[in-house]
Protein backbone atom coordinates (compact mmCIF):
# COMPACT_ATOMS: atom_id res chain seq x y z
CA UNK A 1 0.00 0.00 0.00
CA UNK A 2 2.80 2.40 0.92
CA UNK A 3 4.75 1.93 -2.29
CA UNK A 4 1.70 2.57 -4.48
CA UNK A 5 2.23 6.26 -3.73
CA UNK A 6 5.57 6.17 -5.55
CA UNK A 7 3.88 5.71 -8.91
CA UNK A 8 0.93 7.88 -7.90
CA UNK A 9 3.05 10.93 -7.17
CA UNK A 10 4.68 10.67 -10.61
CA UNK A 11 1.22 10.77 -12.16
CA UNK A 12 -0.02 13.79 -10.17
CA UNK A 13 -1.66 16.29 -12.53
CA UNK A 14 -1.98 19.41 -10.37
CA UNK A 15 -0.69 20.81 -7.05
CA UNK A 16 -3.71 19.73 -4.98
CA UNK A 17 -3.41 16.14 -6.15
CA UNK A 18 0.33 16.24 -5.54
CA UNK A 19 -0.24 17.49 -1.99
CA UNK A 20 -2.80 14.77 -1.25
CA UNK A 21 -0.38 12.06 -2.36
CA UNK A 22 2.51 13.49 -0.31
CA UNK A 23 0.29 13.64 2.80
CA UNK A 24 -0.95 10.10 2.16
CA UNK A 25 2.61 8.80 1.93
CA UNK A 26 3.55 10.41 5.27
CA UNK A 27 0.40 9.06 6.95
CA UNK A 28 1.01 5.51 5.73
CA UNK A 29 4.58 5.75 7.03
CA UNK A 30 3.33 6.79 10.48
CA UNK A 31 3.81 10.58 10.37
CA UNK A 32 0.99 13.08 10.68
CA UNK A 33 2.99 16.08 9.44
CA UNK A 34 4.84 16.47 6.16
CA UNK A 35 6.47 19.21 4.16
CA UNK A 36 7.80 19.07 0.59
CA UNK A 37 9.58 22.26 -0.45
CA UNK A 38 10.89 23.05 -3.91
CA UNK A 39 13.53 25.77 -3.81
CA UNK A 40 14.70 27.72 -6.86
CA UNK A 41 17.76 29.96 -6.69
CA UNK A 42 17.23 32.52 -9.46
CA UNK A 43 20.09 34.26 -11.19
CA UNK A 44 19.05 37.65 -9.81
CA UNK A 45 19.85 36.28 -6.32
CA UNK A 46 16.17 35.92 -5.36
CA UNK A 47 15.13 32.56 -3.96
CA UNK A 48 11.68 31.08 -4.62
CA UNK A 49 10.08 28.64 -2.19
CA UNK A 50 7.19 26.41 -3.31
CA UNK A 51 5.88 24.57 -0.26
CA UNK A 52 3.43 21.68 -0.15
CA UNK A 53 2.52 20.67 3.40
CA UNK A 54 -0.21 20.03 5.96
CA UNK A 55 1.23 22.42 8.52
CA UNK A 56 -1.33 23.69 11.07
CA UNK A 57 -2.17 27.33 10.35
CA UNK A 58 -1.27 28.41 13.88
CA UNK A 59 2.15 26.80 13.58
CA UNK A 60 2.64 28.36 10.17
CA UNK A 61 2.18 31.80 11.73
CA UNK A 62 4.51 30.91 14.60
CA UNK A 63 7.40 29.99 12.29
CA UNK A 64 6.80 32.68 9.68
CA UNK A 65 10.00 34.52 10.62
CA UNK A 66 12.52 33.67 7.84
CA UNK A 67 15.36 34.05 10.34
CA UNK A 68 14.32 30.73 11.87
CA UNK A 69 16.01 28.98 8.97
CA UNK A 70 19.34 30.52 9.97
CA UNK A 71 19.26 28.93 13.42
CA UNK A 72 17.22 25.74 12.97
CA UNK A 73 19.77 22.87 13.12
CA UNK A 74 17.69 20.65 10.81
CA UNK A 75 17.45 23.32 8.13
CA UNK A 76 21.15 24.11 8.49
CA UNK A 77 21.97 20.44 7.97
CA UNK A 78 19.82 20.24 4.85
CA UNK A 79 21.30 23.42 3.37
CA UNK A 80 24.75 21.89 3.24
CA UNK A 81 24.22 18.12 3.05
CA UNK A 82 22.19 15.59 1.08
CA UNK A 83 22.36 12.89 3.76
CA UNK A 84 19.09 12.60 5.71
CA UNK A 85 18.91 13.76 9.32
CA UNK A 86 16.92 12.00 12.03
CA UNK A 87 16.12 14.67 14.56
CA UNK A 88 14.54 14.97 17.99
CA UNK A 89 14.82 17.08 21.12
CA UNK A 90 18.49 16.21 21.45
CA UNK A 91 19.24 17.72 18.05
CA UNK A 92 18.02 21.13 19.18
CA UNK A 93 19.54 20.77 22.62
CA UNK A 94 22.97 20.16 21.09
CA UNK A 95 22.52 23.25 18.90
CA UNK A 96 21.41 25.33 21.89
CA UNK A 97 18.02 25.88 20.28
CA UNK A 98 15.84 24.05 22.81
CA UNK A 99 13.31 26.91 22.88
CA UNK A 100 12.75 26.44 19.15
CA UNK A 101 12.08 22.74 19.70
CA UNK A 102 9.68 23.45 22.57
CA UNK A 103 7.75 25.89 20.38
CA UNK A 104 7.28 23.41 17.55
CA UNK A 105 6.71 20.45 19.89
CA UNK A 106 3.56 22.18 21.11
CA UNK A 107 2.16 21.67 17.58
CA UNK A 108 3.23 18.02 17.29
CA UNK A 109 6.66 18.54 15.75
CA UNK A 110 8.74 16.56 18.26
CA UNK A 111 10.79 14.29 16.01
CA UNK A 112 11.16 13.41 12.35
CA UNK A 113 13.25 12.68 9.27
CA UNK A 114 14.36 15.35 6.83
CA UNK A 115 16.54 15.35 3.75
CA UNK A 116 17.39 17.60 0.82
CA UNK A 117 18.25 16.94 -2.82
CA UNK A 118 20.49 19.56 -4.42
CA UNK A 119 20.29 19.58 -8.23
CA UNK A 120 22.25 21.57 -10.80
CA UNK A 121 20.85 24.90 -11.94
CA UNK A 122 20.01 26.19 -8.48
CA UNK A 123 17.20 23.69 -7.85
CA UNK A 124 16.72 22.09 -4.45
CA UNK A 125 14.08 19.81 -2.96
CA UNK A 126 13.46 19.24 0.73
CA UNK A 127 11.24 16.54 2.20
CA UNK A 128 10.46 16.29 5.91
CA UNK A 129 8.11 13.97 7.81
CA UNK A 130 7.36 14.80 11.43
CA UNK A 131 5.34 13.46 14.34
CA UNK A 132 4.69 13.61 18.06
CA UNK A 133 5.92 10.09 18.90
CA UNK A 134 9.54 8.98 19.08
CA UNK A 135 11.10 7.24 16.09
CA UNK A 136 11.31 3.42 16.24
CA UNK A 137 14.13 2.01 18.37
CA UNK A 138 14.37 -1.13 16.25
CA UNK A 139 17.22 -0.53 13.79
CA UNK A 140 15.69 -2.63 11.02
CA UNK A 141 12.33 -0.86 11.24
CA UNK A 142 14.00 2.54 11.34
CA UNK A 143 16.20 1.59 8.38
CA UNK A 144 13.16 0.64 6.29
CA UNK A 145 11.44 3.88 7.24
CA UNK A 146 14.50 5.91 6.28
CA UNK A 147 14.84 4.05 2.98
CA UNK A 148 11.20 4.75 2.11
CA UNK A 149 11.63 8.47 2.82
CA UNK A 150 14.80 8.66 0.73
CA UNK A 151 13.25 6.88 -2.24
CA UNK A 152 9.96 8.77 -2.08
CA UNK A 153 11.92 12.04 -2.08
CA UNK A 154 13.38 11.09 -5.46
CA UNK A 155 9.92 10.45 -6.92
CA UNK A 156 8.33 13.49 -5.27
CA UNK A 157 11.12 15.77 -6.51
CA UNK A 158 10.68 14.55 -10.07
CA UNK A 159 6.94 15.24 -9.89
CA UNK A 160 7.41 18.63 -8.21
CA UNK A 161 9.57 19.88 -11.09
CA UNK A 162 6.67 19.14 -13.44
CA UNK A 163 3.64 20.05 -11.31
CA UNK A 164 4.82 23.06 -9.33
CA UNK A 165 7.30 24.83 -11.59
CA UNK A 166 6.36 26.68 -14.79
CA UNK A 167 7.18 24.72 -17.96
CA UNK A 168 10.65 25.27 -19.33
CA UNK A 169 12.17 24.61 -22.70
CA UNK A 170 13.11 20.93 -22.55
CA UNK A 171 16.78 20.09 -22.75
CA UNK A 172 17.86 17.58 -25.38
CA UNK A 173 17.96 14.07 -23.89
CA UNK A 174 21.46 13.21 -22.68
CA UNK A 175 23.16 10.19 -24.19
CA UNK A 176 24.54 7.53 -21.88
CA UNK A 177 27.23 5.10 -22.96
CA UNK A 178 26.54 1.35 -22.67
CA UNK A 179 29.05 1.17 -19.81
CA UNK A 180 27.30 3.97 -17.91
CA UNK A 181 23.94 2.25 -18.33
CA UNK A 182 25.30 -1.12 -17.18
CA UNK A 183 27.03 0.30 -14.09
CA UNK A 184 23.95 2.30 -13.15
CA UNK A 185 21.66 -0.68 -13.56
CA UNK A 186 23.72 -3.13 -11.49
CA UNK A 187 24.22 -0.59 -8.71
CA UNK A 188 20.52 0.17 -8.40
CA UNK A 189 19.66 -3.54 -8.53
CA UNK A 190 21.46 -3.88 -5.21
CA UNK A 191 24.98 -4.85 -6.22
CA UNK A 192 27.88 -3.28 -4.39
CA UNK A 193 30.34 -1.28 -6.41
CA UNK A 194 32.80 -4.19 -6.15
CA UNK A 195 30.18 -6.69 -7.37
CA UNK A 196 29.10 -4.48 -10.28
CA UNK A 197 32.72 -3.98 -11.32
CA UNK A 198 33.37 -7.74 -11.17
CA UNK A 199 30.29 -8.53 -13.27
CA UNK A 200 31.34 -5.97 -15.88
CA UNK A 201 35.02 -6.95 -15.75
CA UNK A 202 36.34 -3.52 -14.82
CA UNK A 203 38.07 -1.82 -11.92
CA UNK A 204 35.95 -0.39 -9.09
CA UNK A 205 37.28 3.08 -9.83
CA UNK A 206 36.18 2.72 -13.46
CA UNK A 207 32.69 1.58 -12.45
CA UNK A 208 32.39 4.53 -10.04
CA UNK A 209 33.48 6.89 -12.82
CA UNK A 210 30.77 5.56 -15.14
CA UNK A 211 28.11 5.95 -12.41
CA UNK A 212 29.26 9.49 -11.61
CA UNK A 213 29.19 10.40 -15.32
CA UNK A 214 25.66 9.04 -15.73
CA UNK A 215 24.38 10.92 -12.69
CA UNK A 216 26.04 14.13 -13.92
CA UNK A 217 24.71 13.81 -17.48
CA UNK A 218 21.18 13.36 -16.13
CA UNK A 219 21.56 16.32 -13.73
CA UNK A 220 20.79 14.09 -10.76
CA UNK A 221 22.25 13.62 -7.31
CA UNK A 222 22.32 9.84 -6.97
CA UNK A 223 21.92 6.58 -8.88
CA UNK A 224 18.21 5.91 -8.05
CA UNK A 225 17.25 9.40 -9.23
CA UNK A 226 19.30 8.92 -12.40
CA UNK A 227 17.56 5.63 -13.20
CA UNK A 228 14.14 7.16 -12.56
CA UNK A 229 14.93 10.09 -14.86
CA UNK A 230 16.25 7.75 -17.54
CA UNK A 231 13.03 5.78 -17.39
CA UNK A 232 10.97 8.96 -17.52
CA UNK A 233 12.86 10.08 -20.59
CA UNK A 234 12.21 6.70 -22.21
CA UNK A 235 15.94 6.43 -22.76
CA UNK A 236 16.24 2.92 -21.49
CA UNK A 237 13.23 0.88 -22.52
CA UNK A 238 15.55 -1.94 -23.62
CA UNK A 239 18.63 -1.34 -21.53
CA UNK A 240 17.43 -0.21 -18.10
CA UNK A 241 14.62 -2.12 -16.45
CA UNK A 242 13.02 -1.12 -13.14
CA UNK A 243 14.03 -3.54 -10.41
CA UNK A 244 12.49 -4.60 -7.12
CA UNK A 245 15.06 -2.57 -5.21
CA UNK A 246 13.89 0.60 -6.92
CA UNK A 247 10.15 -0.16 -6.54
CA UNK A 248 8.51 -1.14 -9.84
CA UNK A 249 6.88 1.77 -11.62
CA UNK A 250 3.77 -0.35 -12.08
CA UNK A 251 3.35 -0.87 -8.33
Description:
The protein is an alpha+beta fold. The chain has 12 helices and 5 strands. It folds into 2 domains: 4-163, Beta-Lactamase (2-Layer Sandwich); 178-246, Arc Repressor Mutant, subunit A, CATH 1.10.10. The protein has helices at 4-10, 15-29, 57-62, 68-71, 73-80, 89-94, 98-105, 139-163, 178-188, 193-199, 204-217, 223-232, and strands at 33-41, 47-53, 85-87, 111-119, 123-131. Helix 1 (4-10) runs parallel beside helix 8 and helix 9 packs across helix 12 (223-232). The longest helix is centred in the middle third of the chain and has 25 residues, at 139-163. The chain is globular and about 55 Å long.
Structure summary:
It is globular and about 55 Å long.
CATH superfamily of the largest domain: Transcription factor LuxR-like, autoinducer-binding domain
Which structural class is indicated by helix and strand composition? alpha+beta
How many runs of DSSP E, i.e. beta strands?
A: 5
How many helices?
12
- What series of H and E elements makes up the topology? HHEEHHHEHHEEHHHHH
CATH topology of the largest domain: Beta-Lactamase
Low-confidence stretches: 234-251
Q: Largest sheet, order of strands side by side?
A: 2-1-5-4-3
Overall helicity: 40-55%
- β content, as a range? 5-15%
How far apart lie the N and C ends?
Answer: 9 Å
Mean pLDDT across all residues, rounded?
A: 83
Amino acid sequence: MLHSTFQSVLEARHPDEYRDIVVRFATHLGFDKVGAITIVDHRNADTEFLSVDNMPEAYSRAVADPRNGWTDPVMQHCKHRSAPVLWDQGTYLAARQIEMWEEQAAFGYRTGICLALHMPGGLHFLLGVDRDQALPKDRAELGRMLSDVQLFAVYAQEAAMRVLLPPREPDPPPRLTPQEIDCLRWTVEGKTLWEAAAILHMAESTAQLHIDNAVRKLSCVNAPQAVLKALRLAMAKKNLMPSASLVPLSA
